[in-house]
Design brief:
The structure is a single chain. With about 1000 residues, this protein is of the alpha/beta class. The protein folds into five domains: about 230 residues, Spore Coat Polysaccharide Biosynthesis Protein SpsA, Chain A (Alpha-Beta Complex); about 120 residues, no CATH class; about 270 residues, no CATH class; about 260 residues, Spore Coat Polysaccharide Biosynthesis Protein SpsA, Chain A (Alpha-Beta Complex); about 60 residues, no CATH class. About 45% of the residues lie in helices and about 15% in strands. Strands 12, 13, 14, 15, 16, 17, 18, 21 and 22 form a nine-stranded mixed beta sheet that branches. An eight-stranded mixed beta sheet has the order 3-2-1-4-9-6-10-8, sandwiched between helices. It has a seven-stranded mixed beta sheet with strand order 25-24-23-26-29-28-30, sandwiched between helices. Helix 2 links the parallel strand 2 and strand 3. The longest helix has 25 residues. The two termini are about 50 Å apart.
Length: about 1000
């Protein structure tokens, strides 16, 4: 690397009709504190005074070289001319309407003198002009100045274009300093065709694909960018002009595609080019959104479709519709905002997508689906209009989307909102009007109470929770040990059972002054703690001193309440859950009494070291204070007419969402491949491994609708899986659907301890996915080296399903005792037991199943306790004669404890030979039985399993399960040793666990320490 004093910087300036800006630009260049610069100004046949101004500057300073085009060639070719004329060691591009800070080049030279680099990515200073708002300017500056790391090799190109990396896509040619040799080489292979508007995306692609290194220095912001000047202006454009924009973008796409082909297309280039077009199309459609007048938008959208394809245009306008719906939902909106939303939606729906490319149609489908979901949410906002005129208003506090009874009295209020949070359009929000919404982590449901106190006028105010409601019925319902009625779902049946309708609620409330939950006897409920003080003391996450502090504050602020506080805290009665309904005057008085007490408590308490639950102490205290307030007024003779109602606790308040088609079944849209899995929360690591193996080997030209049937998979795990898969596989959706309601009422069990009840979920598929006539079902203990699209494309004809024969069952049929044959013939009533199939891999003709059996029939069949393999036996018993048998490669069961030799070999010879041949090239490997790779890492085909598992985000969880299995083996060895037998070596130099851990967690690595920690934890050591 040359010393700083010998590095020459070329500044390449393209100039066309910018006589009002070029003097400012050139003055900033000549004012550079670093003197060794080479200024190349290319006049692209300007028709104003630009040429004269440039010449006058060149006459005063020999460092300026002027090149004049005889005819206008556009920005790309103008830059090409400038690069050819540059003589520096490094070069930067400066637009003629921008400028440089005086120390810009000096700071750049200092940076490149420290390390050898091809590209230096600096920051910019943004000045908003010509209608660009200050907010837009700040947002743009934050975007392009976002921090990044050093990149080498292929990662240079990937860092600019690969959406999966989560990088800020920034291909601005004017925001980088380039090694001149790289720049000249890159421009020498670029097109000699005219390119405009999106030329940066093309030029940056070529340069980055040839670069070996890119170093950030975003703290250097001496490039002063006048946002809104030139092509980035915010002025209105006609539909005709917009068509020209589209054609200019399309020309840049063609040039990039030509370069990729000539260069030798790679998967990386192909992927980055796709992402480049996505981002560029977004920028282009933003001009449609912001600059095309409303009366010309339909014509401009047609122009975009004509030039770029119907799916591209429809996708981008649906994206704008989606974002508009989000803006309306997350902030204030006007009548015009809603009008624009409907107008743009109509334009998007009117675009013909028939001739669109498959990949673009996939993107359209996902974007449109999300837009319609948000619009459906907005349409529910009309419910709010029905709430205002209710004399009785019972507010339901919620932080998530939940089912709600059909009632205008029960009114949802969303809490826990943060800036940018999605605001449920069908709910009130506790951050509107005068509020304490920010205190929700501390005050819990009290933020709803405060909001109602300050902003709502009603005759009665009531409060309950998204999962706890009053039982307004006159029926006595059984309570649990905590004084609650337990139920599962909030549906029409529950509303009828508990009187959660307007007529019943009004009848129960009218005429009363105060309604609470029932007063429970603490000597009999809540673990028989005896008193409210005892209940507080027994709560492990609440602090005893907090209750005492609140007591002191209460007695100080309201001495006349001391007697009532003592009586309550040391008594044995309490109502619970901060649920009540009060007349307006009482409610207003109660809030004016309560909140100052809590405010004083908050001021006297240091919450900095509190746990999340302890931080909620004000909410817990308010439950006690409510009791004290009511006891006081009863003692002083307020003569309120009071009532106690039971409290019903719903364990599954989430709404019942029926799965819908991913998009409309219309010409031009891809046909998804539906793939269904079943799992529980404990099986997520295995599920993720199976899905990953399937998607990694699936055709990239197909779209996959992956549906997981489950009842208890935690939300954070669902989100983690979606994040993992969506970054890698844009051709899939991942949907989790809760089947608890459908399984409710069936007491299903299995006769094999390694088979869970999730095995029955496959019987629900025909009802859960009614819009698919064929579905692929896969167990979650498999690996898929083959292409599942190929499997799905199996022509089922009139058969109910396609599957592979079960080699284990067939081998058992030929065992001399004849028990399995007798079972197949007499219990399963199979005409040909040798047609018995394995049900872990199924291509299901859901249309045929729906025409033959109901879900209730399937589940009734499954209750037969005589079956050995439960669901699999049910399917074999009722589908015989309607099964298409797949090649053995599609369900290769592994060799569990030498069953190949002991059992499989006894199957009919032709089937055994076919099974053995399939082991050489399995398309699906099935770890059927009680031995799995995570219980025995030396089992058959385990190495294939771990090859995929270690690339998933749940790998460490699987390692922990291996460690547990190894620990179990150690315990068995100890028992053997106590009997005098020689124990097996636990974790030695060649142990199974080390075979798995070594590749991903080498000796001395942080990952190795994590693995050791897992092992110690499993063994009970620290």
């Amino acid at each position: 690397m040359q010393g700083a004093c010998t590095v020459k910087i070329s500044i390449i300036i393209a100039a066309y009709n910018i006589d009002q800006y070029i003097e400012r630009c050139l003055s900033s260049v000549l004012a550079q504190t670093y003197r060794d610069i080479d200024v190349v100004v290319v006049d692209d046949a300007s028709t104003d005074n630009t040429g004269e101004i440039i010449s006058s500057f060149a006459a005063r300073d020999s460092r300026i070289t002027v090149v004049a085009h005889k005819e206008n060639k556009g920005l790309h070719l103008t830059r090409n001319t400038g690069v050819a004329a540059a003589t520096g060691d490094y070069a930067l591009f400066l637009d003629g309407d921008d400028e440089l800070a005086p120390d810009m080049c000096e700071r750049l030279v200092d940076k490149i003198a420290a390390e050898s680099i091809d590209m230096l990515h600096y920051g910019i200073t943004v000045i908003s002009e010509n209608g660009v708002t200050a907010e837009d300017g700040t947002n743009f500056a934050d975007y392009v100045n976002a921090p990044e790391r050093v990149f080498y090799g292929d990662d240079v190109l990937r860092s600019i274009y690969d959406e999966a990396l989560g990088q800020k896509v920034d291909w601005r040619m004017t925001q980088r300093l380039y090694r001149i040799s790289l720049l000249k080489r890159a421009f020498s292979v670029m097109t000699n065709q005219r390119l405009e508007r999106a030329e940066d995306s093309y030029e940056s692609f070529v340069v980055a694909s040839l670069a070996n290194s890119s170093v950030p220095c975003k703290d250097i912001r001496g490039y002063i960018y006048h946002y809104g000047v030139g092509v980035t202006g915010a002025s209105a454009i006609t539909a005709k002009q917009y068509r020209q924009f589209c054609e200019q973008f399309s020309a840049c796409y063609r040039a990039t595609r030509e370069y990729i082909v000539n260069r030798g297309e790679t998967a990386l280039m192909r992927s980055c080019f796709t992402d480049m077009r996505h981002k560029a199309n977004e920028l282009l459609s933003n001009d449609w959104h912001m600059r095309v007048p409303e009366n010309e938008k339909a014509e401009a959208a047609k122009a975009m479709a004509d030039v770029l394809g119907g799916a591209v245009a429809a996708c981008e306008i649906w994206r704008i519709v989606r974002d508009q719906a989000w803006r309306i939902a997350t902030g204030s909106s006007s009548q015009k905002d809603m009008g624009d939303l409907q107008s743009w939606r109509a334009i998007a729906e009117d675009i013909d997508i028939l001739q669109s490319a498959n990949g673009e149609a996939l993107r359209l489908g996902k974007t449109k689906t999300r837009a319609l979901e948000l619009i459906a949410d907005l349409n529910r906002s009309s419910e709010l209009n029905q709430y205002e005129d209710q004399p009785i208003r019972v507010f339901v506090t919620t932080h998530k989307d939940v089912a709600k009874p059909k009632s205008r009295i029960l009114q949802p209020v969303q809490v826990g909102l943060k800036p940018g949070s999605y605001r449920f359009p069908w709910a009130f929000h506790d951050d509107e009007g005068e509020n304490i919404s920010s205190k929700n982590p501390m005050y819990c449901e009290l933020t709803t109470q405060y909001w109602a106190w300050k902003n709502i006028d009603a005759e009665y105010y009531g409060f309950c929770h998204y999962r706890r409601y009053f039982d307004f019925s006159e029926t006595e319902h059984r309570e649990n040990a905590y004084g609650e009625i337990m139920d599962d779902y909030i549906d029409d049946a529950a509303a009828k059972r508990y009187g959660l309708d307007d007529v019943t609620i009004a009848k129960a409330v009218e005429g009363y002054d105060v309604i609470t939950t029932r007063y429970g006897d603490l000597t009999q409920i809540i673990d028989k703690r005896g008193t409210p003080a005892g209940v507080w003391k027994a709560a492990p996450l609440l602090i005893d001193e907090d209750l005492r502090r609140c007591y002191r504050i209460l007695c100080s602020m309201h001495p006349d309440y001391k007697q009532d506080a003592d009586a309550f805290l040391n008594g044995n009665k309490s109502c619970f859950c901060n649920m009540f309904i009060m007349r307006k005057q009482i409610f207003q008085d109660y809030c004016a009494w309560l909140f100052p007490i809590l405010e004083e408590f908050e001021q006297q308490t240091d919450f900095s070291t509190y746990s999340k639950e302890a931080v909620r102490t004000p909410g817990h205290l308010s439950e006690r204070l409510l009791n004290i307030y009511l006891m006081h007024h009863k003692r002083i003779g307020a003569n309120w007419k009071t009532k106690e109602l039971q409290c019903v606790h719903f364990t599954n308040p989430e709404p019942e969402y029926a799965l819908k088609p991913l998009w409309d079944d219309e010409p031009g849209m891809p046909k998804p491949v539906p793939v269904v899995f079943a799992a529980d929360d404990n099986y997520v690591p295995q599920l993720a491994t199976t899905v990953y193996s399937a998607m990694k080997n699936a055709s990239k030209n197909r779209f996959y609708d992956v549906v997981v049937l489950q009842r208890n998979i935690a939300w954070d795990k669902q989100e983690r899986m979606r994040d993992f898969f969506y970054k890698q596989f844009p051709n899939m959706t991942l949907r989790f659907t809760n089947v608890d309601r459908m399984m409710n009422g069936y007491n299903l069990s299995t006769n094999n301890k390694h088979i869970s009840v999730e095995t029955y979920y496959r019987f629900l598929i025909q009802g859960i996915l009614p819009f698919y006539d064929k579905v692929l079902y896969l167990d979650s203990d498999i690996i898929v080296p083959g292409d599942i699209a190929e499997l799905y494309d199996t022509d089922l004809g009139d058969n109910m399903l396609a599957a592979v024969r079960d080699i284990d069952f067939l081998g058992n049929l030929n065992i001399k005792d004849g028990k399995r044959m007798q079972y197949a013939q007499e219990t399963l009533k199979m005409r040909d037991p040798y047609d018995y199939f394995q049900a872990g891999v199924l291509v299901i003709n859901t249309k045929a199943l729906r025409g033959s059996y109901t879900i209730q029939q399937w589940l009734d069949y499954a209750t037969n306790s005589d079956f050995i393999y439960n669901d699999q036996d049910v399917l074999n018993a009722h589908c015989e004669g309607k099964v298409l048998y797949l090649p053995w490669e599609w369900d290769v069961v592994h060799d569990l404890e030498n069953r190949v030799g002991r059992i499989f070999s006894q199957a009919p010879g032709r089937y055994f030979d076919e099974y053995m041949a399939s082991r050489n090239n399995p398309k699906i490997i099935h770890y059927a039985g009680y031995v799995k790779p995570w219980t025995d890492p030396d089992c058959d085909f385990a190495s294939v399993y771990w090859r995929y598992a270690r690339e998933t985000p749940f790998y460490e969880r699987l390692l922990k399960r291996v460690a547990r299995a190894m620990q179990a083996n150690i315990v068995i060895d100890v028992e053997r040793k106590s009997r005098g037998a020689k124990p097996q070596r636990a974790v030695g130099e060649h142990s199974s666990l080390r075979k798995i851990i070594d590749p991903i967690a080498p000796l001395g690595s942080p990952q190795r320490e994590i693995a050791k920690a897992i092992g110690r934890a499993v063994r009970g050591r620290r």
